Amino acid sequence: MQKTSVIAGALTLTASGIAVRILGFFYRIYMVNAIGDEGMGLFQLIMPVYMLMWSITASGFTTTISKMTSQENARQTWGNIRVIMRKSLEMCLVISIISALILFLLSGFLSVNVLKDARTEIPLKALAFAIPFMSAGSCIRGCFFGMQESRIPAISQIIEQIVRLSALFVFAPILVEKGLTYAALCAVIGIVAGETISFIYVFFYYIKFSKKHFPGSKITRKPSKISSEIRKMAFPLTLTRITASSLAAAENILIPQRLSLYSGETDPLASYGRLTGMAMPLIQLPSSFLTALAISLVPAVSKAKAVQKNISKTISRALIFTIITGIGAAAVFAVFPKEICVVIYNQRDLGALVMKLAFCAPFIYLQITLSGILNGLGNQLFLFKLSVISSVINVFFIYFLVPQFGVNAFIAGVLVSLCICSGLSLGKLNSQTQLKFSLPKNIAKPLLCAAASSLVTKCVQNIIPASRFAFFGLIIFLIISYFGFLMALGVFSFKDIKFIFFSQKKNPASSADI
């Protein structure tokens, strides 16, 4: 029997994830050029409300549907899947319509008293129209994930990004000249259009899929019992997501408010837009593969735990690969911060912010993989506690230190919270598995290799003429030299590459190994 390694299995998810990230970046680049830094800041103020609405109306149901659908699919009781979907959609639509009405009616109050910017009222009203489509679409995507049909959700996300970009392209020339309120409204119209078209796409394919795969399927469980199971599973999940989203929203809402108290800040909303809408997404862009790895690790680790297999080797190698990737990405951002920002955003001044955030990159990437592993080991409550700890630390830095030290205090808070959460996660993981992890080899040596490759690259940069072609060549040179140093010091080998990217032959008796 041929079995693909965990990381190789993540490549399918990575392809769609990278496509969505690239389209999302085109969307952000065009948005920055169309609505400006301050318009981006106003839009970023609205995004925490959007994510909170998703937590309330869809987050718990999506996970519940995915899990219940997977179980019924394994039993081949497909008639029950129809009931699960019908009952879940009924609950989601009721909750989402009520939430949308509340958001629409209270948008004035929220804009003035919570977001502290009256210009967000009209965009919030428009956002309310996206909520039911977002909720229903998320539920249907959960069903496809449960049926292990990830192609349809992946395509729907790509379609959503294309529609958002198209809507911005159409409406920006009309609305932006009317002021910042309408500039933010333009971006929200893209969200509404994207969610609507994405829902229509997944709904159409769900009808088509169910007719093909579930024809005449019998219902083996009472609908009332299925409804009860959905509520028991979805509502606690929703409450934890609401708590986490509320804390995250508090962080984002507080940043521009506290920045306005900093004496060195002349335009807090524009700075907020550059920080959360431009610099942070840029730092997180290389994490697409690691996000897919984390998703793939959840079922793989769960299965290994169920059959009591030792998975320490896989976990250790996944963590080592994550650390190597994170340190390498940090080196690229630290060596070429201004050049990257010029190429992507045409804003050289943004480079100083990106360089500071570069030091957060290894911890951001590490926490993504750690979360996937701990999820697979059943540590959802621990991860929820971590998110609360992280938000509390960030809110402390934002509220008390940002007025004195500006954006630097926010970055320091992010770095401190990431370090603490990564340390706690590694401690928890080490208590449940036997990690094969060497601090000097797996952290100190990659740092040394990154420093050496960065120094060599800067020396080469100083002796060749500057051009865009030379810039891309230097990035490739830095990455190749970095991995060359890693192999020379024995941190990374061809054996690790084979383990990560290629299939391994397994006999049937060992097919459960990870």
Description:
This protein has 514 residues and is mainly α. It has a two-stranded antiparallel sheet with strand order 1-2. Helix 2 (11-75) packs across helix 7 (151-175). The protein folds into two domains: 45-257, no CATH class; 265-379 and 429-514, no CATH class. The protein is built from 20 helices and two strands.
Give the key terms:
single chain, 514 residues, mainly alpha, 2 domains, 2 strands
Topology:
Blueprint: E1 2-3, H1 6-9, H2 11-75, H3 78-105, H4 107-114, H5 121-128, H6 131-146, H7 151-175, H8 180-213, H9 223-259, H10 268-284, H11 288-306, H12 312-335, H13 337-345, H14 351-357, H15 361-376, H16 380-405, H17 407-432, H18 439-463, H19 468-488, H20 494-501, E2 504-505
Antiparallel strand pairs: 1-2
In short, what is this structure?
The protein has 514 residues and is mainly α.
